[in-house]
Design goal:
single chain; 313 residues; alpha+beta; three-stranded antiparallel β-sheet; 10 helices; MAIN-like; AminoTfrase-like_pln_mobile; Aminotransferase-like plant mobile domain-containing protein
Length: 313
């Protein structure tokens, strides 16, 4: 008895077809070569980069993703030394660890190799040995962000929010949002507000601009490199309550979303702060044996330029 297997143009096996006289019980489920044959769960696999790689189709001339990081911008725009009037609010927010967790260099080959194995339906990397993922415990250990607290649901905002909580005029807020072509704030604009309000001793406004700039350069980094969504300002309307949010959970959700987008074949760029993938390297100068819980673990390693390419990984 001979079984005839026909593939579609995309290489998918729609069904196992049988010669005359064969039993229909031998029918094979739909699937992809080199991938899952049960596509009821991995419903996005048709658009996954792994399916295209199976047929030798790369994302483009460069096999690795363009990975955007804001480490250098964070260093230049977000100073570690703050006025004491702001320091108490920053410490209370549970976000101060983000000031020291960004690396200036990223191993794009290593990140690209992991992304090619990420599946958004399972939120995990499908490795040859098993599945693995980035968990809330990893976020807590790497970034020292709280993983318990209030879960925040995004809401739409208007220009009045900037007027009330960033200390700008209605005209300034409207003009800036129009220049951004959406409900965004430019990181440079926030930095200017931070400097202006600090000079004017308007500490609440300066702190909100600072915190929004901080999360916009790290856990809420945008692919456009220069913007942060305006709705995140709602997290800092009450500077005494913002410590109650589960910052680790929202950081992980955002990371999952970006990894899911980057795993699609038509995506060429990924925003990913390198602290999630610190690269196998040596212990950095900041690490001290007695420092068991002071620095976030993401800063206990110094970056070493990798020599392996995507194919090797």
């Amino acid at each position: 008895m001979k079984l005839v297997r026909r593939r579609g143009a995309d290489g998918r096996i729609p069904v196992r077809t049988l010669d005359r006289g064969a039993s229909s019980s031998a029918a094979e489920p739909a699937g992809y070569p080199g991938g899952s044959y049960d596509t009821s769960l991995l419903v996005k696999y048709e658009y996954h980069v792994a399916r295209h790689l199976w047929f030798g189709e790369e994302r483009g001339p460069k096999k690795e993703l363009k990975v955007a990081g804001h480490g250098l911008k964070l260093t230049s725009r977000v100073p570690l030394a703050l006025p004491p009037q702001m320091e108490s609010w920053i410490s209370r927010s549970n976000l101060s660890s983000l000031q020291r967790t960004s690396l200036n260099k990223i191993d794009t080959n290593l990140v690209s190799a992991f992304v090619e194995r990420w599946h958004l339906e399972t939120s995990s990397f499908h490795m040859p040995f098993d599945e693995m993922s980035i968990t809330l415990d990893d976020v807590a250990c790497l970034l020292h962000l709280p993983i318990r607290g209030i879960f925040w649901s995004p809401q739409d905002v208007t220009e009045e929010v900037a007027v009330d909580y960033l200390g700008v005029s209605q005209g300034q807020a409207q003009s800036h949002v129009r220049s951004c072509k959406g409900s965004y704030y430019k990181l440079e604009w926030l930095y200017d507000l931070f400097v202006h309000h600090k000079v004017a001793s308007s500490w609440a406004y300066a702190t909100r601009a600072y915190l929004l700039m901080l999360v916009g350069s790290t856990i809420f980094a945008d692919k456009i490199f220069t913007l942060v969504e305006a709705r995140y300002l709602l997290l800092f309307t009450d500077l005494y309550r913002c410590s109650g949010y589960s910052w680790g959970a929202v950081a992980l959700v955002t990371l999952y979303r970006y990894l899911g987008d980057a795993s699609m074949y038509n995506c060429k760029q990924l925003v990913l702060d390198s602290r999630y993938f610190p690269t196998v390297g040596k212990r950095g100068e900041n690490w001290k044996p007695a420092d068991k819980c002071g620095l976030p673990r993401a800063m206990r390693w110094s970056y070493r330029q990798g020599v392996l390419k995507v194919d090797d990984l």
